């Protein structure tokens, strides 16, 4: 069965963005050996435009072949005139407000999101990258098999949480931790099923 990986940027105190969803304050940390990591080891989760800018657009995917994101996350690309922000992956957008996909590479998931993700997980293929945001991650919390948290060395105090969900305890096992010269940590956790 395919795994669903929530690969997310977060502050030390667990917020993925300001209350408005803005996360541009993380960008100054995309430097040095952390930038090298993103380009050389995590390029699959970068938007196609970033892959192009880094010169890795043609690199084959080995970890993920699909991405699911929420309507608000997808809107950022649409506002920039991009209808397929992850063209190197099969794209799914969870939305009840978009009735027709603006791009042949993007499938709109408007019905039962959990059932749709369970069906994706049963299909043959590589992993599924959960792009975000908080509401989508909250709806899919029980389906997440792996967390990859890029923890930036900032404290926000409040904002958009990693999971917009009701209280519940879900145990994960720490699989790895990497630290970078600019203070960023990348922690990988796996759910024991």
From TrEMBL:
Spans through the membrane: none
Stretches assigned to the Bacterial bifunctional deaminase-reductase C-terminal domain: 3-186
Pfam families, sorted: RibD_C (PF01872)
PANTHER family: 2,5-DIAMINO-6-RIBOSYLAMINO-4(3H)-PYRIMIDINONE 5'-PHOSPHATE REDUCTASE (PTHR38011:SF11), DIHYDROFOLATE REDUCTASE FAMILY PROTEIN (AFU_ORTHOLOGUE AFUA_8G06820) (PTHR38011)
Name under which the protein is recorded: Dihydrofolate reductase
């Amino acid at each position: 069965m395919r795994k669903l990986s929530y690969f997310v940027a977060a502050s030390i105190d667990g917020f993925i963005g300001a209350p408005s969803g803005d996360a541009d304050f993380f960008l100054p940390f995309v430097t040095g050996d952390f930038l090298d990591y993103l380009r050389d080891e995590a390029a699959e989760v970068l938007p196609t435009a970033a892959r192009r800018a880094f010169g890795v657009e043609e690199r084959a995917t080995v970890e993920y072949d699909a991405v699911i994101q929420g309507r608000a996350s997808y809107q950022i690309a649409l506002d920039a005139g991009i209808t397929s922000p992850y063209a190197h992956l099969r794209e799914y957008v969870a939305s009840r407000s978009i009735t027709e996909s603006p791009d042949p590479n993007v499938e709109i998931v408007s019905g039962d999101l959990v059932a749709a993700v369970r069906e994706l997980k049963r299909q043959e293929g590589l992993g599924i990258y959960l792009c975000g945001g908080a509401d989508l991650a909250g709806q899919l919390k029980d389906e997440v098999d792996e967390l990859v948290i890029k923890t930036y060395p900032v404290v926000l105090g409040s904002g958009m949480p990693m999971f917009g969900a009701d209280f519940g305890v879900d145990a994960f096992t720490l699989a790895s931790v990497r630290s970078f010269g600019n203070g960023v940590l990348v922690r990988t956790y796996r759910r024991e099923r």
